[in-house]
Every structure is written in C-alpha cells, then in structure tokens.
Design goal:
The chain has helices at about 1-20, 90-95, 125-135, 140-155, 170-185, 195-210, 250-255, 265-275, 285-310, 320-330, 340-345, and strands at about 25-35, 40-50, 60-65, 105-110, 115-120, 215-220, 225-230, 235, 245. By secondary structure, it is an alpha+beta fold. It folds into 2 domains: about 1-120, Phosphorylase Kinase, domain 1 (2-Layer Sandwich), CATH 3.30.200; about 125-345, Aminoglycoside 3'-phosphotransferase, Chain: A, domain 2, CATH 3.90.1200.
Length: about 350
C-alpha cells in the first residue's frame, strides 16, 4: 500500500506541474492508480477540473518509471553503450510515430529526470475487451489492428531523425537470448541437463532461421492489451521497445498472446495471417513464418512470466501461464526440427498453478 501512496504523490506532483504550465486555470480533482502490466512502468489517471473545460482535457495519464533505460533483453544489443540511451525510449519512438500515425497518445509533458510522463488518456477499453463485444467479423478489432500494423510497416521508414527503432534489430542473437531466458526460467528443475542441451541446440537453430527473415518496423509487444479503443479509434501503447524485426512477428504477438486464442480459432487465425501477408515479402510461406515467430514469442513469454513471478514478486502472472503453455504445445506440433523441445513442453515446463511440474 505504501508504494501506491508514493505513486499517487509522484503522479499528483507531476500532474500539478503540467497543469500549471499548460492549463493554469485548472486543478487536479482525483488521482487513481490504473491496471499495470509486465513492466516497471505504472500508470495513474488524474482527473482535472477547469473553468474552461473545452480547452482542458478532463483526464490525463501519468506514466511512472523507476528504470528509464531499456528493457532486459534490449540491453543485450549494446547499441547505446554503458551510458544507456540519451533520452527516454518511449519519447524517442513516440516522436517518430507521431509523424506517421494518429494512433499514439499525445505526450503533454516529459519529466525525464523524475521518471514520469504526462500523457493523453486513451481510456480503459482494450482491444481484447472490444473484441469480446464484437458480433460481426467484418468489424473485427483484430483485423483493424492488423490493418493499423500494415500501415505502420508501410510508413515506418528511417528518416534519419534518430529513432531508436532503426538502431536495434531482432536478429539471431536477440532471438537466441530470449530462448535462453525461457530455458533458464521456464523449465522445471527435473529436466535433465542432456535434454536441456538438445533443446538449446534446436532453439538456436530456430533463432538463426528467424534472424534471416526480412525485417520491418516491429512494435515488439503488439497485443490486445497494448491497443485501446476509444471513440472508435485504435490507440497504440507501450511502443518504447520498437525495433526492426520479422514482418509477421507483431502479427504473431497479436494473435497468440495470453488468452487471445480463446477468441481467434485456428481457421480464422490462418485467414488473418494470409490476408495480412498478401503482397508482402515475409521470407517464405506466410503460415510457416508466422508459426516460427509465434513459437519463439510464446516461449519468451513463458520464460518472462515465470521470471516475473519468481524474481519480481508478481505471482499473478502464473495464472496466465496455462493458456500460454497450451498455445506453445499446439504450435510445437506444427513445426519440424524441435522434437526435444516438443517433449519438454509436454512434461518439463513450468506451466503455472494448474499442473505446474
């Protein structure tokens, strides 16, 4: 509870500065913590009252960060040296994206030295929630999100402005690092060393295949909880980890993340992939490339969620693991050259609170 109180005070202080600078006739009414995610960022909504409400937002969101550097695996790329990035990655990538799309929230104020941003409020309705309400697949929010992604990939070309996304590449080394994260945190202790070694060899071969694929702008965490729907518009969040990666990686992220397969059956999944890939150079058969990307990502998520539960004191991520492991097992049956990994997924993976080895 003490942390929430501290966050409220930090958010109120930063919001007060922004209000005084931008809307001096306004004042803060309430500060409310919002649901977080698998990161060191926390979000709080500040309600604002103003004598001229038409010129002042009724709410803003404060993003608080304890670690303003790169995420755990991006640090492995070493592109920023020992000192880290010169500015907040969120701000850097936002500056680029805001020139090519209106899907990103506006940044009202940046207080980098205090680890906080004052952002436009894009509401609480995630793409996931919107999809659960959809009754017509012609209006399917998932397809709308894929259209947004196609547009971003088409428009996101390095313009020399220094966007960090174009300085980082999802190559075999980074794919391999994430596989090793899975091997370290996702496997049950009883898995023999010899089996781990064979599994490692198989996964490094997959990393090499993924590293050879054509690349485009990649959000890297493009899923139904990082896309919100407000006033009929899709709004994109948590893009600070963007880099160059396989064209179908974000597609795989969107369609296989967490419990998304409950809404997207295998037949519709294939239809969406083929519609998205139509006319694009993806590096091979679209479904095969998609499954490779999806398989790598779900293993990364298994490792990451176990890491968050065990090392970061966030046990609630174990509740999501059964559905993620089920997706990994399904994908493993569709790929060649991973026999040992397939066996480990059946009986040697930390699968969450239900049936956890």
């Amino acid at each position: 509870m003490a942390e929430i109180v501290d966050d409220r005070e930090r958010a109120r202080r930063l919001c007060t500065r922004a209000v005084n600078e931008l809307w001096p006739k306004a004042a803060i009414a309430t500060v409310t913590p919002m649901m977080g995610d698998a990161s060191a960022r926390r979000y709080l909504r500040c309600e604002i009252v103003a004598s001229e409400p038409s010129q002042t937002p009724s709410t803003v969101v404060i993003m608080l960060m304890d670690d303003v550097g790169l995420p755990i695996s991006s640090a492995e790329l070493g592109v920023f040296g020992a000192q880290g990035p010169a500015e907040l990655p969120f701000v850097n990538v936002w500056r680029f994206l805001s020139k090519i799309t209106d899907a990103v929230p506006h940044i009202f104020r940046t207080y980098a030295s205090e680890g906080g941003l004052v952002l436009e409020d894009v509401g609480d309705v995630s793409l996931w929630e919107s999809a659960t309400r959809a009754t017509d697949r012609n209006e399917d929010p998932f397809w709308r999100a894929l259209l947004l992604l196609r547009d971003l990939q088409r428009r996101a070309v390095d313009d020399g402005s220094g966007c960090y996304a174009f300085r980082q590449t999802f190559d075999a080394r980074l794919f391999g690092w994430e596989f090793e994260h899975f091997l370290e945190y996702g496997l049950a202790p009883r898995v023999p060393t010899s089996d781990r070694t064979r599994c490692h060899g198989e996964l490094m071969a997959v990393a090499e295949r993924l590293g050879d694929l054509p690349r485009a702008f990649c959000h890297r965490d493009f899923h139904a909880w990082n896309i919100h729907v407000r006033d009929g518009r899709l709004r994109l969040l948590d893009f600070q980890d963007a880099l160059l990666g396989p064209r179908l990686y974000d597609v795989a992220s969107l369609l296989t993340d967490r419990t998304t397969p409950q809404l997207i059956d295998s037949r519709y999944e294939e239809q969406l992939v083929m519609r998205f890939a139509d006319g694009l150079a993806v590096g091979g058969d679209p479904l095969e490339v998609y499954r490779l990307c999806a398989f790598q990502r779900v293993l990364k998520v298994i490792g990451r969620f176990n890491f968050l539960a065990e090392r970061k004191g966030k046990p609630h991520y174990r509740q999501i693991l059964p559905s993620v492991v089920a997706t990994a097992r399904c994908l493993a049956t569709q790929l060649d050259g991973i026999d040992q990994t397939r066996r480990i997924l059946e009986d040697g993976v930390k699968a969450g609170p239900v049936g956890n080895p």
